[in-house]
Backbone:
């Protein structure tokens, strides 16, 4: 089977530097190497409450961000998850092959729900099964994901294995994670031990892909630092400094060592100035292209429709085979 990439981002809240460096930027180079399918996972988004108009807007924003970051709709398939019914169809089938014990191990569910588990929805609990269905509906072989999604990908492999064993075939390839570089864990600018997140209540914790130069500069200037002299990398003792070094290294495409070599003897203020200039230089073309694209909703929707047709055709063919394997009567 040919190598095929599948990945996705949820249309919730603001896309930020972590989404860019940890995910979308890495996809751009993959387009020349693999067949790529990039999904806007709106079914995942509704595992927590979403306002309909916000969801629609965020779906278009993520699409614009993909394109502005360099994902080419002529090379790759870009589409919204809800437009291809195979995702929910297969999620049901795979759910019937997923023991509760496996789902109960998922740390993201436990962290998100805490003591309030009884109020969490079945959808939130089944989230990783839907993610497995996303990947397996296309029989994707490689999945670029951040560090935080590794456990879900492991589960997708386990579910694929369980299905293959039960039906005594090897229909599903076991999808391989592609985890890349120093940028896979971009942390909050306010707390170097917490992931940069769309849902953090402080906007100063993240650089949004919609931030202008002034906002980027202000946020780096205000970013938490420490009292140690110089700039050095030590994730446990200096989480904030280490995060800024990681961001610099990812943006400049140089090693951490090179960053420390250049800035080790400087103070935070100088380092942050250089970092913010670098971030502005890299992000402003993306930001302005995103703004342009979002002015033309009909273009965005046309990209999504074209992608939905292409993705739908691949998934429909696979779903027919899957229904046959499971024993559903084909009419
Ligand atoms: N759960 C992923 C995240 O929050 C998004 C996602 C949904 C995904 N389906 C996927 C990623 C399939 C990779 C493959 O980051």
Residues:
């Amino acid at each position: 089977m040919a190598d095929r990439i599948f990945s996705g981002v949820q249309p919730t809240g603001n896309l930020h530097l972590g989404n860019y460096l940890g995910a979308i930027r890495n996809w751009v180079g993959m387009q020349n190497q693999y067949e790529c399918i990039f999904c806007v996972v709106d079914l995942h988004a509704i595992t927590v409450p979403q306002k309909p108009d916000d969801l629609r807007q965020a779906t278009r924003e993520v699409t614009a961000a993909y394109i502005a970051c360099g994902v080419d709709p002529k090379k790759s398939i870009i589409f919204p998850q809800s437009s291809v019914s195979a995702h929910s169809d297969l999620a049901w089938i795979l759910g019937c092959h997923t023991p509760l014990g496996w789902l109960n191990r998922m740390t993201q569910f436990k962290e998100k729900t805490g003591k309030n588990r009884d109020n969490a929805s079945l959808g939130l609990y089944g989230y990783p099964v839907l993610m497995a269905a996303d990947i397996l509906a296309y029989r994707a072989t490689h999945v670029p994901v951040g560090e935080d999604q590794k456990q879900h990908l492991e589960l997708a492999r386990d579910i694929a294995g369980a299905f293959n064993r039960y039906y005594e075939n090897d229909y599903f390839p076991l999808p391989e994670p592609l985890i890349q570089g120093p940028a896979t864990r971009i942390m909050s600018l306010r707390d170097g031990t917490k992931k940069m997140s769309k849902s953090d209540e402080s906007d100063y914790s993240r650089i949004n892909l919609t931030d202008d130069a002034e906002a980027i500069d202000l946020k780096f200037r205000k970013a938490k630092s420490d009292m140690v002299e110089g700039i050095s990398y030590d994730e446990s003792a200096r989480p904030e400094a280490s995060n800024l070094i990681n961001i610099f290294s990812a943006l400049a495409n140089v090693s951490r060592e090179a960053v420390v070599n250049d800035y080790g003897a400087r103070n935070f203020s100088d380092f942050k100035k250089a970092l913010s200039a670098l971030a502005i230089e890299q992000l402003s073309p993306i930001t302005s292209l995103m703004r342009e694209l979002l002015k033309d909703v009909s273009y965005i929707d046309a990209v999504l429709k074209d992608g939905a047709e292409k993705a739908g055709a691949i998934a429909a063919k696979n779903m027919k085979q899957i229904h046959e394997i499971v024993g559903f009567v084909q009419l």
Remarks:
- The radius of gyration is 21 Å.
- Residues 6-8, 10, 41, 44, 131, 134-135, 143, 145, 149 surround tryptophan (CB under 6 Å).
